């Protein structure tokens, strides 16, 4: 605990800002039912009621409280993005480590398959697959995770290839250590720092992809609250000088900036550079 506090004390203001924002979003996502004045699907008033009074941020086109929708969207958007990033890292990390440690035809087969998948723009690929398999949440998670796993594979393989040629890995091979030991005890501990930083960056990309898909109508489906679909559904209010559609867009931007601040700090620490 003391080492963690010592590390945080040396963090720059931008990292502190990022950590505070991430902590705030986490609290909102975990305790959404306690924070939101209404449920995410409850029709609480008339359509497009103005800010103030009973509805602090007004209502949407169906009369649902926008503040409540924003709060629940934090749970849905961030939670689904986090699960998707975890699955992407599981798929891409495991295959990347196998390609680096085994080499040979396994490396060639996995690398060429990833090259083919990465040749297709990710958003277009996601739109195509979701149109085929459907737009429910499990399909959304799997499709985006598989597409983003290709990026994780490339990074994991690249950093692991620099480790597998080291003498201590060769010594472990000569001792007769198995594949599991080589990955778990020799390679993985030496590539943890860049993978953690990549997790933060990949979370941002997944988060933005889900929001973009929801804006296009193929992401999280109504009546589930989601920041991307909230921007689309309330976009007409901009015509009347109402900034309500900018609130979910701002929530997306703020979290993206906060995560990038933390990732930049972590990359700086892992690089060994001094201020």
Description of the molecule:
By secondary structure, the protein is mainly α. It has one domain (76-271): MetI-like fold (Orthogonal Bundle), CATH 1.10.3720.10. Helices cover 72% and strands 0% of the residues. The protein has 12 helices and no strands. Helix 10 runs antiparallel to helix 12. It starts with a helix and ends with a helix. The model has no long low-confidence stretch (mean pLDDT 86).
What gross morphology would you assign? elongated
Q: List segments where confidence is low: pLDDT < 50 over at least 5 consecutive residues.
A: none
Compute the number of helices.
12
For the terminal residues, how far apart are their CA atoms? 24 Å
Main CATH class: Mainly Alpha
Overall average residue pLDDT: 86
Helical proportion, percent range: over 70%
The CATH architecture assignment turns out to be Orthogonal Bundle
Q: Write the CATH homologous superfamily.
A: MetI-like
> What is the number of beta strands?
0
Rg to the nearest angstrom? 22 Å
Class from secondary-structure proportions: mainly alpha
**Secondary-structure element order, N to C:** HHHHHHHHHHHH
Summed up, the domain count is 1
Q: Biggest sheet, in brief? A: none
By CATH, the topology is MetI-like fold
Strand coverage percent? under 5%
Question: What can be said about this structure in brief?
Answer:
The protein has 275 residues and is an all-alpha fold. 72% of the residues lie in helices and 0% in strands. The protein has one domain (76-271): Orthogonal Bundle (MetI-like fold).
